[in-house]
Amino acid sequence: MPRIPHPNFHCAAGCTVEATLTLIGGKWKGVILYRLLTEQVLRFNELRRLLPNITQRMLTHQLRELEGDGLIARKVYPEVPPKVEYRLTDYGQTLAPVIHALKAWGDAHVDRHTAAVPSATVVPRIQP
Q: Which ranges carry the HTH hxlR-type domain (predicted)?
């Protein structure tokens, strides 16, 4: 059963963290926002290439949610085949420090994890 976020944020300390995570949480939203932050404007298929493990349906769903929350803007060009571009809105740009902080923390976490795990020793294969 999904967790229902608070309908208003006049609640205990930390509730605003929940509000933020509701907007950018999940497996793909943060990555989509990061890509739009670094690339400025991306078309749907460019995002698909940058995120090879996401399904078309999930990417469409995540983009619609981000657009509905006012974090990204979608521009459709009237041509055949349709051309659609995505970019961060001014409101979405305010997440830049948050996204950069998440990336910095993630980089440090990966470095820490990599240093803690000894590299696997390669055992030569014996040919039959």
A: 15-114
